[in-house]
Amino acid sequence: MRLELREITKRFPGVLANDHISISADRGKVLGMLGENGAGKTTLMNILSGLYKPDSGQIFIDDEEKVFADPVAAIRAGVGMVHQHFMLVPVFDVVEAVALGAETVKNALGTFDRAAARKRIVELSEQYKLDVDPDDKIENLPVGVRQRVEIIKALYRHSDILVLDEPSAVLTPYETEELYTIIRSLAAGGTTVIFITHKLNEVLEVADDIVVLRRGRVAGTADPKTATRQQLANMMVGRDVELIVQKGPAKPADVVLKLEDLFVRDDRLDMAVKGLDLEVRAGEIVAIAGVQGNGQTELVEAITGLRPADSGQITIAGKRTEKASPRAVSDLGVAHIPEDRGRDGLINPMTVAENYILDSYHKAPYSKNGIFDLKAVREGAAQGVKDFDIRTPSIDTMAGSLSGGNQQKVVVAREFSVPVKLVIAAQPTRGLDVGSIEYIHRRIVEQRDAGAAILLVSTELDEVLAVGDRIAVMFDGKIVGILAGDDATYENLGLLMGGASFGGGVAA
Amino acid sequence: MKRVGELLRRSAVPILSVITALLFGAVVIFLTDFEHLSKIGSDPLGAIGGAIGGVGKAYGSMLSGAFGDPGRFATALQTGNANDIGKAIRPFTETLVAAMPLIFTGLAVAVSFRAGMFNIGGNGQVMLGALGATMVAIGLNGTVPSPVLLVLTILAATVAGGFWGFIPGFLKARTGAHEVITTIMLNYVAALLVYFSLQGTNNWLRAPGSTSPVSKNLAPIVDVPNIISLPGLRLDYGFVVALLVAVAVSLLLFRTTKGFELRASGFNLTAARYAGMSAGGSMMLAMALSGALCGMAGGFLVVGTVGQLSIDLHGNIGFNAIALALLAGLRPSGVVLAALLFGALTNGGKLMGVQTGIPQDLLFLIMALVIMFVAAPGLIRGMWRIKAGKPPPEIAALPASPTSTSTPL
Questions:
Q1: pTM of the prediction?
Q2: ipTM of the complex
Q3: Which residues of A touch B10 (CB under 8 A)?
Q4: Where are the alpha helices (DSSP H) in A325-421?
């Protein structure tokens, strides 16, 4: 079906989230929607799926105007959403999870017609090569398959317009490739696909048309056959951005971080890091690439003293630290940019100033004998806000009310406000816009050039390739290969990240 | 000017909650005034007028019960007689007397909430404080000068209450035992400990010859000096100490690194851990401090206001303080104001009961409504058509994330 959104406007208190946005997608076409966080993509899709009502503007499906009172109306009109966070009941099997809320009944008593549902799911799975076993339990399925179940769920409800919200965020490069194939076969079958992302490669790869949103407006459209990454990035941000991190060659010096035969357990006490060896030298950036959930989180927590090591050795600047407290590690000159800044890095209901001193509040000049020197705190925070270009109304603003990029700048400003020997940066740019990513990367390279050892953990290949001097691929709790930054490509990293299961020649 | 505006914005919901609750209370008084309303068939206007008059009379007597009778003030001014002055200002001083222990327990709840802990054990901590004070007072009777003894009794109360609060803090930090369960259980243990020390053949603390479980009269042994020495007045320096402690708690929370750790852990335990703070330490400190504040309330009650340990000495101030601390937005200054309000309601309610026959339960109804409205700020904003402030009072979100009210450093 042909979809057209005409002059959609939606205002929230203080924000014009969608400002006269008009887009259209023809039957069987893939529309790539590109934009930074806060550009209005999600608001627009929530309007399309009936969650929000637009203040003005119209929705047309096959040139017929539609008004969606609620999400059910949108589903009836043929609009299906696959959200970033899956909406599947873990203990259900695929048939139950897909049919939930749209069950067919076989008699007056309302008995669920499982056979009919199962048959249709098998048909859909075969037609679009989704390769889903209808009898598997959701909780046993890998993330990539769960996503395909979500797609079946939408198709099961006769969706002719399918909206995919940041679908690749949770996938391995290999699974992402599979997703592209599925999207192409859906489009070939007549489904209109709206593909929302902030990754430039993906729209270039899979979209028939590209629309770029910026600050609630359509910043422009592009043809994937002719557009370049640079053009799209500039359109997204509204100025010239550097996609490539400017940095000179690394000058590796002494080993600052040394991990030997390290084993770490996760919260369920299963082994997550399984005999890991790694060295990071002063003046170099070692990037750890890997799909989420291969032990990176536990590794970082063990290095920073937040999680006990099960066995093995951690040496930071010549000192054994596998039993050290987080504060003792921090006192060795270790800066930690945690992977979930909202949960671990910031206290949202506290002010920018309070967050700025969060891990040095107990030291001079901010306090003496347990009493704060409020003047020093305010001056320090004001300096940090200035040095790191944190856009905040004041240092008394709640950290939680800042934008993601500025929140991360608060964390980075805090961590880099003291002399640093080792930087542990976990997903430092996750969810940030292109402009903020550029800024954070520059700061990290600055630390390297000043002589710090940097360990960067990221699931984004773009980031790993742009920043890493050496790239270590982590799979199933171990480093399965280390490549020099210049030798690494999407292909060889992707192969290693998928581990042995994709038949890769796993390098030692 | 900006600060005044900020203050108004922040206190709009609590103030309107109190006003709304009083209006609801008026409706209840009106609808239960059967004496007048029963005549509604024969004389509708008279019946309604009479019932409305009843509301006015009830709130009038509540006001004079809480703050004093204008007539008595006039008499006191004319005669200048000490007795008359005492009678005139007695209601107001009684309001302060009622507020004193509530300031302590309100601060106690505020401190624990700020640190992310739900201290339901105020009553038990008050009782243990009172028990500690009583034991020291009777045990050291005659061995030290009385000002020293007074200091020692209050100190004992603080330590005993603090210990009683430390236990759940310790259990939570070390074993993860939920403080709501442990504090409630410790309330029973404390109550039974006090009962045990006051009954049967246990004659050390027990009043000689009494059949009920009460202690000896402590007033002859040790007493908190009165602020104004006029006949019939009970207001003592415990109230002044309460105000000073409120200032101290405020300084602790917002001007010291320990207070920073408490608040940080209360808002976000993971981030506090990431910042190198000791989460368990903050829990134990907050609960011990909270218990110590409740213990002080017990101490000042038993050697000041009441002068005798009994099993119902706590008067439920540990529980009432939870509501009070929420009304106060977990700010020490707010706690003082809210305690004064609760004191005025309790105290004024007594005179209302005597003069109009309206049961004091109405006051509990009003207090409960105040809390309900404070916990549902959206309701109050809707009723009074005021716009939501930027960070809404997150009090409703307790106890998972105690407050949103962060004070800028």
A1: 0.80
A2: 0.83
A3: none
A4: 326-331, 352-356, 374-387, 404-415
